[in-house]
Design brief:
mainly alpha; Farnesyl Diphosphate Synthase; 13 helices
Amino acid sequence: MTISAAYQACLDSARRHYENFPVASWLVPLRLRGPIAAIYAFARRADDLADEGQLDVPARLESLKLLRNRLHEPDMSDAVDVALSDTIRRHALPKRVLERLLDAFESDVQHTPFTSWDDVLTYCSNSADPVGELLLRLDHSPDEPSQKAIECSNAVCTALQITNFLQDISLDIARGRQYIPVEASTAIRRTYELFTKGCGTTSHLRSRRLRLEVALTIAGGVTMLDLCASRTDASIRPALGIWHVPRVAWRLFHVLSGKPLEPNSRSLRHDLNS
C-alpha cells in the first residue's frame, strides 16, 4: 500500500460519507485535503465500530481498543492506517488528541444520561474539540498553534456539538440517550456564548481559504441554533435548506465582523426536554 494510494482511498471515502469534516469543500487548501481525509476516515471507522452493526457492548469496546492500539502500531496494509500514520509523522500530531476521539466513542457505547452541564462540556472536550485542534495543528504545521487558538477552537467545536444535540434531541431520546440535562433555554443561551467566543478561531488560522471555510461552518451552525431556538415542537428536527442562504449570509457577516452572536427575538421561549 503506497502512501499516495492510501490518501486517495481516504479521500474517496470522505467524499462518499461527507458529514462534518470539511474534506469535500473546494475552500480547503489542497495540501490539507489528504491529511484531513485521513483523520476523517479514522473517526468514521471509530464511529461505525461504536454505533453500527449488531455487536454487543463488550465487542464494541474491544474493537475500539484494537483501533487505539493501531494508532501506535499501524497496520501498513490498511489504507487508513497508512495515511493516518503519515499524517501524524509529517505534521507532528499528538496521538493523545486522536485518542480523545476514541474516549468519546467509548463513552457513547457505555452511555449514561448526562446530569449536569459539566458532563456536556466534558463529553464535547473529547467528541468535538479534538477535531478543531487537529485542523489547527495541520494549518500551523510545522509550528504549533497557541493555547489561545486552541481555546477558541474548542469553544466553536463544543458549540457545534451541542447544536447537533439540540437538533437531534428527539432522535437521541428515542435511542435512550440524554445529552441536554438543562432547560433548552439555558443550553441555547450558553451555546450562543460559545459560538461568540469561537469566532476568534478565524483570526488564528493562517490559510485564508480555511478561514472562510471555518467562518461558513460557524455561520451555518449558528443558523441551525437559531432554528432550534425558534421551534415550538421538539419532535420536529430542523434542517438547513436553500431558503436559509440569506440567514446564513447574515450570520456570516456577524462572524466576520466580530459581532456578538445573540439569539433572535423568537428564541429562548420553550423547553425542548418537555
